[in-house]
Each structure stands twice: as structure tokens, then as C-alpha cells.
Automatic annotation (TrEMBL):
The protein's enzyme class: transferase
Cellular component annotations (GO), alphabetically ordered: apical plasma membrane; pollen tube
Keyword Disulfide bond in record: no
Name listed for the protein in its UniProt record: Phosphatidylinositol 4-phosphate 5-kinase
InterPro entries in UniProt: MORN, PIno-4-P-5_kinase_pln, PInositol-4-P-4/5-kinase_C_sf, PInositol-4-P-4/5-kinase_core, PInositol-4-P-5-kinase_N, PInositol-4/5-P-5/4-kinase
Segments of this protein annotated with the region Disordered: 31-61, 653-673
Enzyme Commission numbers on file: 2.7.1.68
Reaction catalyzed: a 1,2-diacyl-sn-glycero-3-phospho-(1D-myo-inositol 4-phosphate) + ATP = a 1,2-diacyl-sn-glycero-3-phospho-(1D-myo-inositol-4,5-bisphosphate) + ADP + H(+)
Amino acid sequence: MSKEQGCVLKAWEVTVRKTQQAKKRANSIFGTVSVSPQTDDEATTTEENDDETSTSRSSIGELYHAERVLPNGDYYTGQWYDSFPHGHGKYLWTDGCMYIGEWYNGKTMGKGKFGWPSGATYEGEFKSGYMDGIGTYTGPSGDTYRGQWVMNLKHGHGIKSYANGDVYDGEWRRGLQEAQGKYRWRDESYYIGEWKNGMICGKGTFVWTDGSRYDGFWDDGFPSGNGTFKWDDGSFYVGHWSQDPEEMNGTYYPSGTEENLEWDPKEVFNNLSEYKICSGERVPVLPSHKKLSVWNSSKRVEKPRRISVDGRVSVGLDRAFEKMNMWGSESGEGAADIDSTTRRDLDAEIMRLEAEGFIQSLKPSPVPMRLPRAGRKQGETISKGHRNYELMLNLQLGISRHAVGKQAAVVSLDLKHSAFDPKEKVWTRFPPEGTKYTPPHQSSEFKWKDYCPLVFRSLRKLFKVDPADYMLSICGDDALRELSSPGKSGSFFYLTNDDRYMIKTMKKSETKVLLRMLAAYYNHVRAFENTLVIRFYGLHCVKLTGTIQKKVRFVIMGNLFCSEYSVHRRFDLKGSSLGRTTDKPESEINSNTILKDLDLNFIFRLQKAWYQEFIRQVDKDCEFLEQERIMDYSLLVGIHFREASVAGELIPSGARTPIGESEDESAPRLSRADVDHLLSDPTRWASIRLGGNMPARAERTMRRSDCELVGEPTGEYYEVVMIFGIIDILQDYDISKKLEHAYKSIQYDPTSISAVDPRLYSRRFRDFIFKVITEDD
């Protein structure tokens, strides 16, 4: 293709965007070059007798009725548009699954009915292939659910009727009973109250058919905490309930003169053990698992070119050459000619655009995105001879022998004020030869200190951390990994071998901030289960004896990116622009690189229910940090792209992929079905939470200027899994930050710098985050 043709196409693209008249002319040119997809048999039988009809139906933009037997044996009949089912139609898969209803660009969208060969059916609303909206599922054994769905999961209000006669009427979240609900067993006994992760948990009432009832608190399906058991004759028992007999205590109050002295509260637990919550049926194949055998595409070979972090390229005509192929075949034969009238119109447009300066300012379209280069496993293993080998041994000894190993289990999460006293700390001496309480070791003598040990034990219980697993991760045979050399802060970062925990050395000022806000932090994470704030599991200090007398303080945190999904892109987002771009050349950027605000080239879209939960929680977390005078925190975001070709090129959602293209098992690809499998497996639903393993859509953006925080949406979407949380919450607005703000405000726009008042920081942070993470329409 000549340079002139490239300029012609560029001018034409600008004209299409600028005027309605040009769009109509574009339809007249481009509307006659696509060919409707057909099977080989159809092509043979219709080639001689139906050329004219085939040509008329091939026009892009025309909706017509089609009846197809597809190459793999699937059958479709219904409305068709540009290679996809579109409108109302019926699709029958070879395995016996069937869908009848509305389609949009090859995906089930709108109202429809999906049937399984087992006899199970779902009738209701669909969105992008998922059961999403209001719908009814009837299982093969008679289970029925009527209510709200989000991405194949029961989410919202719904009524579940089980095959054995049990009924649940209440709220659901991610496929499990959550919040308020009523469960009625087939013998007419029922529970009404709070639920959590599919279990009776919180405050509620259980009523038996004989008239007796329990009102109080529950945990894991049994009474736990304060509660009252009442008989139908008016007598009752009030006390503290627990499955541990040593913690059980209360008082029996008879209704009259008769006393039931032989009654044992354990009878309630024995009786309740017979009342099981039905798990329901598992759906083996979800509608979004089903792929259609109707897509096709042409291969193209592109020149390698330099791509910036956000996908922009150097100015050139490569994209124009690709688009010019719309006017001819790849081989150059049978090319459609542009008539002389059209060429004269285009020449006139070129002259006008040159005069107005549009052609010089044209920017190329973004090139197809690729999976980033995989980074090596993070960190340097700390082995014997490493400069911090002894420090690692001291840390492991202290945690295994004192912080966790020698501590009693937490009985109650209600802590006294004295537990948060910064003076609440315990020093333990660890000589090399060992003591009555410490083992002999090969390191130098050191002292170990735990800060507020009861508080952090309670936090670990609150975060459901098993003490044995915790010790094994940090103190097992596998060594820790050091992530980086100390930067300006002087902090080291260590990662456990299983990637579950991160250990950071702390400055004294950071330790003071954490201890000052510890009570508020504890109350916040206890009140908001889905908080996005980083999780702290322990705060310790190692004091090396000898002439140096060096103190090393460190905090143990959860690793946000410990996930079964590989993280392809990482972003640290603050909402400021000054210095908020990576300083690495493109050749050094890989999947481990932490990118910043001005490197972000996506807007992430969450399902409505999750987005509403997201904005509520971000507001609560930011209010907490603002009250504690904390600033300079970030939203750390990890992205896993779900769809990629064998060659590593990202596939936009709804893009056409070649028929019969083989999948290389070693390629870096996780398909939509893999994520759907996670969603359909009840044992793995707990891994999907706010900020953890969340399915979403990422819309690609393009910036008009390098200082623009949020780019313009392009309409190009990618299916992703998101992992995110709020980190770096130990920087208060102290005198150093106030001086930094004053100094930088003289040189730069005050709104662009990171060091600002906590109230302003919180507002700016939320405004930015709610622009880049939005609701999926």
C-alpha cells in the first residue's frame, strides 16, 4: 500500500469521527466488503443458486434470520448479525445443553432459558453470558431458587426450596446465605436471624416445634456468647453459651415450683447437631462455560514496535496499512475498487484537513496489548552467609518460641483497654546455650520483645489465621526471601516462601504510629469484615546484645498478592500526579514492576452489587484513616488478564477468535471457564471477597496529555481478575510532611503533590479511585 493510501485512510477516519455525513459515506464503502460466515456445505450448495441473496445478507449492520449447523455439530436458529447470534434465537450444543432467548453479539444477554441434559433449567435474566439479574433455577432433583443473581452466583434476596422440604428465605452473597434470613426445616422448626458465609452466625432465634426457643448469639451454627433458652411452660435459662464446657455458665429460672434440675445445656447442642443446613446442588456446567462455534478472524503479522507503558506508540502508518486491507483481500486479489467520485471526495477532505492541521495532529490507534513479560520469583533467598541471616534466625526463634508457640489461645475478642497500652510488652532473653524457656541456637545472643501480644493474637484470630500454619509459614524449613535493598526509609522487606506473609523492618516513628492507632485499627477491622486496609499480624523487636546494642523493629503483614492467579500488572495508586510514573525503561518492566498513577491505562468496572460494597468500604476506610491523621497511603492493585492468545496477545472481551485454534497448555492463559469454575465451586467461594480474586472488566484508556490522571475510554474491554487493598497506612501528617508540603507547593501545583493534609488527601484519593474503579453498566 502506498503512503498516499495511508493518508487517505487517515483523513477518512478523522472525517468519520467529525461529521455525520462522513459516517453515512463510510457505510456505503465499508458495508459491502464483509462476507457472511458459512460452513463448507452451505457454501457448496448456495454458491451457484443464491449468490445475490448471500451478498445482500453479508452487509455489516443487517439483522436477518439464520439456521445453521455449525462445524462442530452445534445447531443455531434465530436472528443473526455480523457472524454472531444477535436478537432472539435458539442454540443447541452437542452435549445436550440448550439456550432459548435473547442474544447480543454472540453472548446471552437479556431474558432467556437455559436447559441442561440432566433436566435442570434456569429461566430469567442473563448478562454477558452469565446468569445475572432476576431468575429461577430448578435442579434435576427438585431444588429451586427464585431470586437475584450476579455472575452465576446467588447474590441479593432469594428463596431456596430444597428437595428434602427445607426452605431458606433471605439474603445471599456470592452464592451463600449472608446477613438476614429465615431457614425452615421440614419438621417446621426454623431459625430467623443473621448468617455469615452460609452458616448461622450472629444474633438470631431458633424455634423448635415443641414451642421451646433460643434467643441470642451464634457462631458456626451453634449458640456462642450471651443467650436465653426458653421452654413453652415459661421457664428459661440465661447465660454464656459455648461448646467448651469450661466456658459454659448460666442460671436456670423455673416458671413455678417445679424445677428441671436434671436439664443440661449441652442437650441444646446435641439437638441442634441434627439440624443441618442443606448445601444444595452443584451446577457442573454454567452457561458462561459454553463457547459458541461461530467466530472467525484473519491472521495478521505486525511489525515489532516500541510500546510505552500505556500502549502508545511512535507516530507511523502501520495501523493505516492494516485498516486498508478492508478494501481488498490479504492476497491482493479481488480487491474492491474505490470509485472516482469517492476518491474526489476523499481528496477534497485531505486538502481541507491539511489546511486545518488535522493530519499532522493525528495520533495512531493503540496497538494490541500483550501479556507483560513474566518476572522472576521475587526476592533473594536468605541463606547462610547472607548479611541478614542471623536476623532471620532471631525473628524465627522469637515467633516460634514466644510470640505464637508459648501463648494461650484467645478466649474472647472483647479486649480491655490495658491490652492496647504501648507499655504492654514482654522482653525475652535468647542466649546461644538456651534457657528453661528458650532453645539453644547458632545465632548471637539477642533479646526479643512482643508489642501488645494479646491484641495481635486477637487480630490473628479475627483474620482466621491458624497459629500452626502461621508458624510454619514464617518459621518452617524454607528460608525467607529478601525483596530489596533498603531505600531512603532504610526498611527491608521479607517474604515467606509460601508468599502468604510479608515482613517489613520499621522505623521507630512508624512503630509509634501503629501503637497509637492500634485500638482504633482493631475496632475498625472488627466492625468491617471486608475492610481493604492492610492486615497486621504482629509487631516485634529484636535487640542485638554486645557493643552495638542495635534494635530492629518489624511488623508482619498479609501479602496482598498471595493468590492462585498470577498477577500480570501491579499499580500503586494515590490520586496525585507529581512523580507518579515509573522511572524504569520499558525493557526492564515486567509483571513484578510496580506502576503508578500516570502509568495506569485502564478503567475497571465491577458488577453493581460489588461496586456498591466497594464504595461503601472505601468511604469507611478513608474516614478511619482521616480520623487517625494518616496520609500518603495507596490502593495497591493487581490485575490478572483472563483471556490471551497462545502468542501472548490479550484478547478483548467479545473479540473474534479463530475457529479450531488449539490452546497450548504451557501458554500464559487463563480462560473464562477457569474463573467460572472457581465461581461454581462452593468450596472456593470464600476466596472471592471484596478486593480478593474479584472478576471485573477493564476498559482500556488513552491519555490526551502526559499529565492527565484518567485517560479517555476507548471501548476496548478485557476480562480480568482484580486484587486490591489499601497499604502504607503508617505515615501521619507530622512536621516533616508539613514542611514537605510547604516546600513543594512553592515549586508545583499543591493539588498534584502527595504530601497534603489528611482531609484533603482522603477526598482526593476517593475522587480518583472512584473514577478508575466504576460500576459496570
